[in-house]
Amino acid sequence: MRKFNAVLSMGILVLFLIHAIAGGFQLAGILSGGSAVMQILAWVMLGMILIHVIIGCKLTVDTLKACKQSGTSYYKENKLFWLRRSSGFAVMIFILFHVLIFLGRNENSVYRLNYFGTLQLISQILLVIAIAVHVLTNIKPLMIAVGTKSYAKILMDILFLLSVVLILSGIAFVIYYLRWNLG
To answer: Which of 41, 75, 90, 112 could cross-link with 130 by S-S, CB 3.0 to 4.6 Å?
Structure first.
């Protein structure tokens, strides 16, 4: 199950990068409208995230059972474990906000976006931060789990790419906010 979850995580990461780059261009006004392919990829990514959440919950329950059986939890020694779990929970909450904000609605065959105000901007910046924490704390074990022999070489490349995409995503949310509220 861990190996499957690792492969699933890699797929989510790839789809996230595509989604963030294309979505950032749309939010900044560089690209107009979303394509059907991008919407399908977003829904596929959401489904993969749900499977990842279910597996993560199962593995967390297994860990808690093992802690209970051993009679000790080693909370202080397992801070990274709990950071990974809590950041994953935060990502889930903010993804829900993201879907609710950008889902939009059809009115008389015209697609309408939901209002994007200060609270929406804050929730999306928090999404970017939560994703950064979650991926940064999980990337090394992910590379090991998928069998990367010299993960240190590509780890920095992945972290750099992710950092650039997350920074640009945050900037795109701010631009979108300004377009909604100043334009």
So the answer is: 90
Name the token pair of 28.
């900044």
Residue 80 token pair: 């990274």
Distance of CA 140 to the CA centre of its chain: 17
Give dist(CA 176, CA 59) in Å, integer.
Answer: 38
Of 37, 40, 45, 52, the closest CA to residue 16 belongs to 45
Q: How far apart are CA 174 and CA 115, in angstroms?
A: 14
d(CA 28, CA 34): 13
Please identify which residue in the block is written with the tokens 């990502």. Answer: 91
Tokens describing residue 42 = 């977003």
3-state secondary structure of 10: helix
Q: Are 21 and 166 in contact (CB under 8 A)?
A: no
pTM, two decimals, is 0.88
Q: Is the pLDDT of residue 159 over 70?
A: yes
Task: Give the torsion sign (CA, 29, 35, 37, 41).
Answer: positive
Rounded to 5°, angle at Cα 94 from 89 and 95: 95
